[in-house]
Design brief:
Layout (H helix, E strand, L loop, with lengths): L1 H17 L5 E6 L8 E9 L4 E4 L3 H5 L5 E6 L2 H9 L7 E6 L1
Antiparallel strand pairs: 1-4, 2-3, 2-5, 4-5
């Protein structure tokens, strides 16, 4: 009976990892990026993304540029950190392309 419960628990855990996904939001400011220069910063969340700790500011990241593209995503590395910390710390990445 115990072996069966352990097998079901491990199976459920593996399935939960298989069904997770990464997300991406892309926003164009002005006419969008004119070049390929990128600035990357991590955003910091706690409790699976429910509590915001520190967010990057795309306007500051873009500097004096009026036309740029902002992409916010959860990369594989962000997801790995989230899983390793048992969803206590959940980072994401903001990329500003100028």
């Amino acid at each position: 009976m115990k072996k069966r419960i352990i097998k079901l628990s491990v199976g459920a855990l593996l399935c939960s990892f298989l069904f997770t996904s990464c997300y991406t939001y892309k926003t164009q400011v002005g006419e969008g990026a004119k070049g390929t220069q990128q600035v990357k910063k991590w955003n910091h969340y706690m409790l699976g993304g429910l509590v915001r700790v520190k967010l990057s500011d795309p306007k500051k990241m873009a500097g004096d540029t009026k036309d740029y593209t902002v992409k916010t995503k959860q990369s594989f590395v962000n997801g790995l950190v989230t899983v390793v910390t048992l969803y206590i710390y959940s980072p994401s990445t903001t990329i500003v392309t100028k």
